[in-house]
Amino acid sequence: MASAFPKLPGFVPTQEIDKPNFRKVSSTKQEQNREVHHLPNKEYAVPRKQPIQIPPQSGMFNPDYMSTTHAMHLPKNANNDSEELYQPSWVKMDRHVLRFSGYFKEAVVESALENYRIRKITVFYYLEDHSLSITEPKQENSGVPQGAFLKRQKVLRADDSKTFILPEDFRINQDIIIFGKTIRLFDCDQYTREFYELQGIPQEPSFVPQSDSFETKTMTKFVPQKDTVMKDYLEHKLGGGKVTSQKQFLENDRKVLKFYVFSDIEYILHYYLADDTIEIKEINSANSGRVPFPMMLRRQKLPRKFSLNQPGQTYAEDFIRPQDIQFGQPLIIYNRKFLINGCDQFTRQYYFEKFNVDFPLGGQEEYVQQERSNIIIPPHNGIGDEQDSLGYIYRLQPKPPKKDFFKWVDNQVNLRFLAMFNTTKPEDKDRVFVITFFLNDDSLLVYEPTVRNSGIPDGKFLEKRKYKNVNNNNEFFTPGDLIVGNEVQINGWRFQLLDCDEFTKKWYSENFK
C-alpha cells in the first residue's frame, strides 16, 4: 500500500529510531561485506559514565553567548532511566575505549646484531562501534616506520566465522590475530580491568615482555665513567683547574706562606694555602752578574716523591703540606735539596696557631729597585684625557688607566646646574647653559639649550671629561666646587651658577650638611 508520507528520514513511521544515518553504501563496499555477518552492536555495562563535555568558548565572537550541547539543557527532574532507554548504542558507548598493550615478533634478516625484533604496540578498542586502532610508540634510531600502525576500523576474526572481533576476544597473556599478525597482550589500563570485572570475566595479571637485542644493546644508554683524576690533571696542565674543596679556597684565598730557602743561592718559596701549590723565585739584585731569571719553579702542586708516572696517577695525599716544611730540614724538590732558613711574620704566626711551632724569622729579602724621580711631566695640552696621556710618560708601552669599578657602580647619578656666562659682552651675557656633573667618574658636560633666532648653534658646548679647577690648585672638579651662586671657571670659560634641579638640591642636603 502506498504511503502518503514523503520518503525522507524522519517522516517514515516504520523507520528504526536508533538508525544513525541513511547514507547509501557504495557497490565496492557492498561487494566486500557481502559475505560478512552484520550483527547489531552489543551494549555492555560500563564501570562509570563519561562526564558531560562543555564545548570550548574560544571560537565565539560575542562573549555574551555560549556554545552549548543538548546534554547541558536537560531538565533537572528528568528520569535518566527513561532517557537511556531510547538512547542508541553509539550514544551510550561514546568515548568508552579499552586499551591493551601487546607485542609481536618480527624477523630481521641480514643483520649481525639481531635475528628478530620485538615490536610493542598499543591496541585501542572502541565500544561505540566495535572498531579498533593500533599505534606503535616511536623509538629513536629504530630503522622502521612507527606511529599509526592500523587505522581505526572493524577487524574480522581469523577463524573464518565472518564476524568481527569483540571485547571477549581480548585476554591478557593470550594471543589475538589481527590481519595476520599474532599479538600477545601483556597489559591493560585500570578502566579496562574494571570493565571486564563488571562483565564477570576479569583479566589476568600483567607481565613484563622479554627484551630483544636491539633494546638491550642499542636503546640502553651508555653512561661514561668520569675520570676525575685525569680531568684535574689536564686542567692544571693547561693552567686552569679548581681546588678540591671550595671551603678551603674561600677561607685561605690570598693567604701565602713565605719561606727563605737556600740551595746554591738564596731563593724565596711561596706556599699558597688556597690550593696547596708551591712556587720558588730567585732573588735578583742589581749588578749581581747573574742572568735575571724570575722563576726557579712555577706555581704547581709539589709531590713528595719524584717519579715518572702515567698522567693523572699522582694522588692528593702525595703532595707536600705545610706540616712537611720544617726549620733547618732540607726540602727535596725534584731531587734537589733546599734548606729552610726562615720565614716572614705571617708564616710564623700561622705555624704557631696551627701547629704550635715557633718558626724563626730570617732570610734575605727581595731586591726592590728604587724608583727614579727625574721624570719631568709636561703640562697637559688639553687633548684627550690627562690620565690616559700620563701612560706614555711612565711606560714605554702604555696601559689604559684603571677606573674605580665600585665608584662607577654605586654612583650612577648626575647633578645638573643652570649657569650663564659671567661676561660683559652683549652677545654672550644672555646665553644659558646646563652643566652636568657625573658622580661615577667626576666628569663634566656643558650643554647649551636651543634658543630660537639667536644665531648661536645649540648643543654640546664642552665635551664630557674631567676638568681641572684653576681656583683649587688645579685639582679636578668635585661636587664641593659646584655651589649655586658661585662662579666656576671650566676650561677657561667663566660660568655663574644660577640654579639646580630638585634632585641635586636633595642630594646636597643629604651629603653636604
From TrEMBL:
GO MF annotations in UniProt: alpha-tubulin binding
InterPro entries: DM10_dom (IPR006602), EFHC1/EFHC2/EFHB (IPR040193)
GO biological process, one term: cilium-dependent cell motility
Main localization, broad class: other
Full protein name: DM10 domain-containing protein
Domain DM10: 94-200, 253-355, 411-512
Keyword Repeat assigned: yes
Chaperone among keywords: no
SMART domains assigned: DM10
GO cellular component, one term: mitotic spindle
A Pfam cross-reference name: DM10_dom
Localization, UniProt: Cell projection, Cilium; Cytoplasm, Cytoskeleton
Domain of life: Eukaryota
Keywords, in A-Z order: Cell projection, Cytoplasm, Cytoskeleton, Repeat
Segment forming the signal sequence: none
